[in-house]
Each structure stands twice: as structure tokens, then as C-alpha cells.
Protein 1
Amino acid sequence: MHLGKGIAKCVTLTSLNLNLYDNCIGENGAKYLGDGITKCINLTSLNLNLKTNKIGENGAKHLEEVIAKCINLIFLNLDLSVNCIGENGAKYLGEGIAKCVTLTSLNLNLRFNSIGQNGAMHLGERIAKCVTLTSLNLIFSDNSIG
């Protein structure tokens, strides 16, 4: 909660690199962090490592809202591996990414999240709407995609 509040005060940020790997921030932590990031309306580059934080499906939903509000993003690096976001979490993320109309570079690591075939399909459909992408790196290993 406090980290999110601190980030919210940095309204002139254009680039944010945040590594919270293996901290068990959970769904609420993702929400508070996201609330702070959405206040940084000038962000063009976001590097967010939340690997192994137990954010789950609802945490992914909170991140979808964050990504959708970062309308100036050009570069997005999102590592959500080992977070149990599931199929719905993947769908939520896809919705947020599709709203990033200025995105040119996307790195998305969803390894070990059980997104399944439908989650992967939805993400693919939404990423296809990002017509300004020039660089794309997707890591979906160990997700029972089939």
C-alpha cells in the first residue's frame, strides 16, 4: 500500500522499473501498486516484475485496469510468471494490452499460470489489435495450452 502511494506522488515519471519478484504481495498488493502507477500519466516505459507474488485472477484484473489507463505506453515488460492468474486473468490482461494504442514493444512472461488454451487464444486476439507493435516477446511455457 505504501509503495503504491509513494509511486502515485511521482506524477512526472516517464519510465518505471519495478522489481518485486517473490514478495507475496497478493491480490491487494497488486491493487494498491496499480492504483499508484495509474497516477503516473506520463509513463512511456513500464517494466514490472511481479514474478511469484500470488496475485491470482483478481490481481491480474487490477493490472488490466492499470495497463488500460497508461495510454502513453510505448514499452511494456510484464513478468507475471508463477502467479496463478488462470484463464480469466489472461483475458483481463489481453483487454488492457489491447487498449495500449501507442505500444511498440511488448514483453510478456506468463510462465506457470494455467492460462490454458482459451486464455492464450484471447491474449493472441487482443495483442493482434496492437497494430503499432514492432517488438513482441511472449513466454507462455508450462500453461496447459494444448
Protein 2
Amino acid sequence: MGGFIAVVRAEAVRTKGSAAASLPWIGLIVAGISFAGILITPQSQERAALLWQTLYVTGMAAPVMVLLASQVVARETNARAGGTAWRASSSRMVALGRFMVLAALSALFHALAFWLVIPLSLAVGAPTDVSRIMWAGAACWIATLGVLFLGFVVSDRFGTIAAFLAACAWQVIGVLAAESASWVMLPPTWAVRAMLPVLGAHQNAEPITAGEPLLTESPFLALALGLLLAVTSVVVTVFGPAKTRGDRAGDNRPTGRRSTQPGALRAVSAVMRGRAVLPLCAVAIVLSIVTAAVYPNTYLLGLHTYTLLPLSACIVAVLTWQSLAPGWRLLVIRPFNTPAAVRWWVLLCISGITTTVLLSAIANALRRGEGTVDALIAIARSGALWFVLGEAGTLAALWVTVRFGAGWTLGGSVILCVVGVTLGGDVLAASGLWIVAPTAWPLSADTPGRFAVAVSFGVVIAVIAWIGCGRAMITAARRGG
């Protein structure tokens, strides 16, 4: 027992100051937005107290938990496990201690996101169901343990980006099927289903009306299934085949392969050959073309605005820097402006996707006989904002990745996507809240005044991010990547 306590204590020391230790503080943002909702909606303060927690459960829980787990995996990969692979330490004991610390970090996040609302709500005299909020926070922690631990297993095997994309798909499946008759057979639904009766909301975050069976359904079956998933993940990791030293090695492909070609942009392009950036861009392009061929333009515009563009900007920036970082000090000493070339590279990637979507939207409108002047002007307005905001978002994502790490970039993109979908709808987008959801601006900035504001903000952010990226990459070279 004493040995296990020492392992947990050592894991806590290694976690201190890492990206994984910082991510739980995102809970402050969730609680803060809920508190703002309490202040601005006096007619429905009790619902506002848990509204954003409901949006977290239905839109962000799986990606955020997987990001938390993947940051621990990335830390150990970068640090080569701190030398423990060559010491007389039990890898199974270390893994079990890591799960314990991960569970504690998740508990901190949920305590901040849920329980902090209680003193804030009481401070302004709003009606506060203390016991319900306390139970919601505890239940959400239990419900998401399975996703957290499974995310650790997937990140350890396949990497951060693969785990993040899988978590996004997991979240979508879980929300869409949470109220289906077969939810018990679908693991992605377990965490969402457990929280619906606790939060008193449907899968679309609308309140459950009195008399509906879901309101009185017990969450304990779904919670038990979530715990079963967590236990299974722990057993597979702790009692599965132990890793060898060779298994702990990271990506050993030569970073500078064929990078002796003249020109910084050509050097960066050579490094990126065989990496995942271009294949993922191709997938995004194919998805856009297929969507335009099958569905009306409203589907394509919504897909690119709310999901494809912000996620593509984030993933392109993260994957590019992860590919360049191991050999960055060698690339940056070349007699060219390599930091500028990196920025142009990511902008070319995101612009290629946006160009395809814009041309597909125009062709789709003409093919369906909807190519009126007003419709084409609306598409052109959205296209202009896609380019401006896409470049601004990609540069901002690159700066955050270089400066703070991939976890913050991926977590921020999830939050922005959820805020964009929530505040970019027909009702809220018509109010002054449209300004809070920049990812929705290509659709919500539909007047000359809003368009001017969106373009101005986008250009300013792009310029600031361009400068910040350059400085961050120079600093990264000085500190060794």
C-alpha cells in the first residue's frame, strides 16, 4: 500500500505545472458563463444555473475528457516517461496511479464547472437548488470516467489527434442516440443518458416537460455502464501486456526528409510529406463536395461554418507544429524565413478547403436553380468571412499550440464550436450575443454593419496572431522546440 501511495504522489508531482493540470480550470469558464446566464435571465435563473453544464454534457464532455487524458500521454511521451522505463518500477502500478490522478483532475474540473455555481447563485439571491447541483456535478464526474479512461487508452495507442477526432465522433453518436431505444447497447450514449434525467433536459438541451418518462428515469443503470467502461479500460491497461522500451519511442521518422530543397516553403512542404495534414485536408474537401452533391446549400454552409472550418483550422495548426517541432531548431537556422513559411503553409491548407467549399456552394446553388443575385451575394459574403476568419483562426491556433501546447488549442476549438452552434442559431443570432460566437459570423454577420465588424475583428486577430506566431516560434527554437 505504501508503494502505491508513493507512486500516486510521484504522479501528482509530475502532473503539477503540466498542461493536464491546467485543463481542469476550464471549469471556471463553464461556471462563469452559467453565472452570466443567471444575471441576464431573471425569468429563468434556475434553468440558467445548469444550462451551460447541459451544453457541456451534450456537446463537449467526450472531447474535453479525452483531451485531459491525451495531455498526460503527451507529457510522458515527450519526457520519455521520466526515465521510469529503465528503473525498477512497476509499469502497472505507475499506470494505476496515473488513472487515479486523472480521476482527481476530472473531479476538480467538475467541481469547478458545477459546484462553483452554487455560491455565485446564492450571492445574487437567485433561486438555487443546492442538492440538485451537487448531485449533477458528482453524477457527471462518475458518468464521464469511462470516457476519460478510454481516452487515455486510445491516446496512448494512436496519438492525440486520432483520439480527439474519435472523441468528437463519440460525442455526436452519444447525443444523437441518447434517447433511442437501443441506448444501452451503445457505449457513447451512456454518459449522456445518465445526465439527461439529472439535468432535466433532452439531448438537444431543451427542458423535459412534466409527465415525460425520462424525467423520472433512474440514472443509475447508465452510471453503472459508464463505470464498467472505466473499469474495463483500467484492466486493459494495467493488466494487459507490459510495454517494452521500444514501445515508448515516439515518431522516429526523420523530420528533415528531403528538406534540403531551396526555399523555406519548399522545405516545410517536404517535411510535411507523409504526415496526416494533407490527407485530412483531402478528407475535408471530399466531405464538402459530397455534402454539396447530396444536400441543399444550407447543410453545406452550416457544416463548414460551425464545424469544418474551426476544427480544420485547429487540427491543421496542431498537426503541422507537431510534425515540425522535433527538428525545429535545424529548420529555423536555414538562411530563409522559416517561421513565415510555416504560417503560409497552414494558411494555404485552410484556404484550399475554404476555396473548395465556396466553389461547391456556388455550383450547388446554380444546379438547384437557386442562383439568384441575393443568394450568390449571401454565399460570397459567407465565403469572404470564411477566408478572413479561417486565416485568423488558423494563425491563432498555431500561436496557442506553439506557446501553450496542443491541449489548449483543441480544448478551445471545442468550446468555440459549441458556443458558435448555440449562439449562432436563428433566435440568439438576432440579438447582440452574435458577437460572442465568432465561429458563427459567416452566417450571423448578415448585415453590412455586422459584416464590417466581423471583417475588422478578423483582420485584427489575423495580424496579431501572425506576429505572435513568429515570436513564439523563435522562442521555441531558443528553448529547444
Protein 3
Amino acid sequence: MKPTLKGFFGALWFLMPLAIAVLLNAVVRPALAWRLDGEKVLTGARRPDIHWVFDKATQAEHPWLTGFLGISNGAIALATLIVILVLFVWRRFLRTSIGR
């Protein structure tokens, strides 16, 4: 079977949320936490999950950012998997049944 351009763009629907989550967890969130002077918290023994905590003044000054950084990397990964699953169901089942 020969790969097609349509198949490539179809795979991007699933790879883009994954790429965004990896960039968030590996680059963006650590940089934001560093700029806000957050304390990194590792939970778990085998594969530590990461989130950051902040002092009260920083939380009051940046409530949205500190709330976002307080969410663990694992929770963001789980949300990404749910988004990919919803996209798969939509593209595989719902979109094809609407077009008939």
C-alpha cells in the first residue's frame, strides 16, 4: 500500500495534540515555572510526576499561570490522550456517518 498525502494529513490530526503536549511539558511549563520562581515537586517513586508550587504572593499576582503550573504533567498527558481519542472517534465514526 502506497502512502498518500491524505493519509499523512490524517495522521497529523493525532500527532499535533501529542506534539503540543510534549512541548508544553518539556519546554513551556518548566520555563514558565522558572520565570515565576516556582518550586518543582516530584511525586511518585518509579516515574516521578512533576508540578510546581508557588508562594502566596506569586499566586495572588499570577493566579492563572500558577494554577496551570500546579497541574501535573501526567494530568496534561491524560487530557491529551482523551483529546486524541475524541478526534479518532469523530474522524472515524461521526464524520463518515454525517457525510453519507
Protein 4
Amino acid sequence: MRKETLGNRRIKRMNQRQRKKLRVGEFVELGFVIEGNLIGNPSCDGIGSLIYELIELVESLNLQLGGGISEDRNPQVSFYIAKNKRGSVSAEERQAVANWLSAHPILQQVKANELGDANF
């Protein structure tokens, strides 16, 4: 059963156990995508330290991340951030990650998308 096929009417007819199992309604879990452009052509050590420090920050907030770096003409980073266990990322956690990445010296034009369904 796919989430996008679940309409509001159908969700309202489900009992609490069903909504929790499918993570819909009041049990929806939220995460976000964050992207940024690398400045110039940073060294492998610079990129490695960025990722290592980001992992430390994300773990300290009890979050997890996935994603990486594309090395096209315009190198970019793109990560998906979600809660480590069940639950949603808060607006404060989203802002903390966005602020930290915006302040990093090898990144520019950091954009954190709005919170959205983490179980898409």
C-alpha cells in the first residue's frame, strides 16, 4: 500500500493502530533535504572534514543523514536529514543544521527545504 494513494477520507476511517503502523495522520514523521554549493575546488581533506563534522553535529542532535557530494561542473552537497529513531525533526533542529552548514567555509548558497514526510 503506497502512501500517496491514501486519501484523507481513508485515513479518517482508520483506527489509531492502523495510522501508527502506516505512519500517517498524527503519526507522520518529518525530515528535510538540505543542499549547498561547494566554493571553488576544495581538497579531499576539506570535504572529509566537512562530512565528519556534519556527522558529529547530526548525531549530537539525535538525527541521521544520507546523501553526498556531486562532482559536476558546479560541485554540490545534498543531504536528507531525519530522526534517528521514530519521530520528526523539529524546526529548531532543522535551523541548527542549516545555520551550521551556512557558516562552513567551503559552502555557499545553503538551502534547507521545508519539513516533509520522511517515509515517502
